[in-house]
Amino acid sequence: MKTVSARIDGELITAQEGQTVLEAARDHDKYIPTLCYLKGLSATGACRVCMVELAGTDRLLAACTTPLQEGMSIRTTSAKLEEYRKMAVELLLVERNHICSVCASNGRCELQALAQSLEVTHVRYPYNNPRLHVDMSHPRYVLDHNRCILCTRCVRACAELEGAHVWEVSARGISSVLVSDMADDWGNARNCTGCGKCIQACPTGALVEKGFAFPSSEKSSEMIARISATRTIAHHS
Ligand code: FES
Q1: DSSP state for residue 193 in the 8-state scheme
Q2: What angle do CA 113, 116, 122 make, to 5 degrees?
Q3: Ligand 1 atom closest to the CA of 36, numbered from 1
Q4: pTM for the complete prediction?
Q5: Protein fold of 3-77
Q6: Ligand 1 pocket, 88 CB below 6 A?
């Protein structure tokens, strides 16, 4: 297998050709925050939290979708990156209604954890306060649009691992919304197998299992990586 050499935070590393900056960084124990990326699923570069600096250019690059190339010099931390990541998280927080104290994922939410680690103690943008639907129609699960950050991890988990293609994002921009099947209630989605992979993939309290009062709902995003690895082995054997 071909390899490439590059620098990440000054350290010379060797990575497999085709690996992204994020994958190479993680292989060398370097932390880059992520939200829409989930190991085991394709990367979309939707949240912009994983931005890194590339020497010789002013452009910031999404580490999860940028292939590491020979000779690159990547910086994963700087005041500029910190500020950019903070802004990305703040914009997510104001877009919907992320009220942690009454959220089923309080204490286990990746957005909340990221906001804490970036020390987002307040937001500098006006809250949208949209009035969004909570879809309780599924017998086992709940979709709360108020908590959805449109990361599409559920969309990809359902399509790429379960092959059910229940989820999609409808509309554009601020009107974007997660929809199931033909934009009907989730309980009417005939393709839904009830497997729960979307629940496990969701980083927030947007998709949760019914019957768990906060903060007892358990999620395991590692499960997605394990299922994906099993499928890869099965394909190759
Ligand atoms: Fe890379 Fe979201 S994790 S853009």
Answers
A1: -
A2: 130
A3: 2
A4: 0.92
A5: Ubiquitin-like (UB roll) (3.10.20)
A6: no
- What are the residue ranges spanned by the domains of the chain? 3-77, 97-236
Contact call for residues 205 and 103 (beta carbons, < 8 A): yes
Is residue 44 a contact partner of residue 36, using CB atoms and an 8 Å limit?
yes
CB-ligand 1 contact for 151 (6 Å cutoff): no
Q: State the pLDDT confidence band at 117, using cuts at 50, 70 and 90.
A: very high
How far apart (Å, rounded) are the C-alpha atoms in residues 17 and 226? 23
Helix (H, G, I), strand (E, B) or coil at 31: coil
Cα separation of 21 and 68, whole Å?
5
pLDDT tens, residue by residue, 55-90: 999 989 999 999 999 999 999 999 999 999 999 999
As given in the structure block, the two tokens for residue 201 are: 């993939």
Tokens standing for 135?
Answer: 């879809």
